């Protein structure tokens, strides 16, 4: 085994020891109280709960969340590309054309989302 991996192995061992000690400590000194209906209900600022504690969300929220994550990851690609583009600027426009193609694919995807009304909040259903 190379000595380059010793710090990584040491960090993994420390992480496992900390996690096991925290779980073990919680089990050993944690309260084992009795369960009551009052303890099992959701806490809503001292008032009696109104309705179920797990409301259903519209699919629109999940759709927007997935689209946000998708475009957020693409933004990370843009930052990585900018660093590489700055270093490889002397090698020609090939890297620029690659990113322009990537941008075109993103644009087509956005137009598709708009035509399918994935971002339309006024639509019911």
Automatic annotation (TrEMBL):
It holds the Pfam family Oxidored_q4. InterPro entries: NAD(P)H_OxRDtase_bac/plastid, NADH_UbQ/plastoQ_OxRdtase_su3, NDAH_ubi_oxred_su3_sf. One of its GO terms (cellular component) is NADH dehydrogenase complex. Its EC number is 7.1.1.-. It is a multi-pass membrane protein. It is found in: Cell membrane; Membrane. The keyword Transmembrane applies. The chain crosses the membrane at residues 6-29, 61-83, 95-114. It catalyses: a quinone + NADH + 5 H(+)(in) = a quinol + NAD(+) + 4 H(+)(out). Keywords: Cell membrane, Membrane, NAD, Quinone, Translocase, Transmembrane, Transmembrane helix, Transport, Ubiquinone. It is an enzyme of class 7 (translocase). One of its GO terms (molecular function) is quinone binding. Belongs to the complex I subunit 3 family. NDH-1 shuttles electrons from NADH, via FMN and iron-sulfur (Fe-S) centers, to quinones in the respiratory chain. The immediate electron acceptor for the enzyme in this species is believed to be ubiquinone. Couples the redox reaction to proton translocation (for every two electrons transferred, four hydrogen ions are translocated across the cytoplasmic membrane), and thus conserves the redox energy in a proton gradient. NDH-1 is composed of 14 different subunits. Subunits NuoA, H, J, K, L, M, N constitute the membrane sector of the complex. This is NADH-quinone oxidoreductase subunit A.
């Amino acid at each position: 085994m190379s000595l380059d991996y010793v710090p990584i192995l040491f960090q993994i061992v420390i992480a496992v020891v900390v996690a096991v000690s925290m779980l073990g400590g919680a089990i050993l000194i944690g309260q084992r109280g009795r369960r009551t209906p009052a303890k099992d209900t959701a806490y809503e600022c001292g008032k009696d709960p109104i309705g179920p504690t797990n409301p259903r969300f519209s699919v629109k929220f999940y759709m927007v969340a997935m689209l946000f994550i998708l475009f957020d990851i693409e933004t990370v690609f843009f930052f990585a590309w900018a660093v590489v583009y700055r270093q490889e600027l002397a090698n020609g426009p090939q890297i620029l054309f690659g990113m322009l193609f990537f941008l075109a694919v993103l644009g087509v995807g956005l137009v598709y989302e708009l035509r399918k009304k994935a971002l339309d909040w006024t639509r019911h259903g």
